[in-house]
Design goal:
The chain is 35% helix and 33% strand. By secondary structure, the protein is of the alpha+beta class. It has a single domain, classed as Alpha-Beta Plaits (2-Layer Sandwich), CATH 3.30.70. Strands 2-3-1-4 form a 4-stranded antiparallel beta sheet, with helices on one face. β2 and β3 (53-60) form a beta hairpin.
Length: 95
């Protein structure tokens, strides 16, 4: 039976002048996301290889949970702090 899980993997490249604000907003963003219904895994960690890059990995139980997360963050401090910062994400379903 196919899984409805939604996986997001990728990174966000934070410019040097915004690193402090992003780092300060990150713990609350992680805490709120992990508390969301359907969030199975959520991790945002600094890259060891690229300065200013945060590696992002998310797993949500289904599309509805993923969509709810995307909607919630639009009114969050994280959204404000990271607005306009380039992201490179791959989203896939299943497994």
């Amino acid at each position: 039976m196919p899984s409805d899980k939604v996986y997001l993997q990728g990174h966000i490249d934070v410019p040097p002048d915004r690193l402090q604000a992003v780092a300060e907003a990150l713990p609350l963003h992680i805490e709120l996301t992990l508390a969301e219904p359907g969030c199975l895994f959520f991790e945002v960690v600094p890259s060891n290889d690229v300065a200013g890059r945060y590696l992002v990995s998310e797993i949500f139980s289904d599309q509805a949970a993923f969509d709810a997360h995307q909607q919630r963050i639009k009114s969050s401090e994280w959204f404000v702090v990271t607005q306009g910062i380039p992201r490179d994400y791959t989203i896939r379903k299943g497994e």
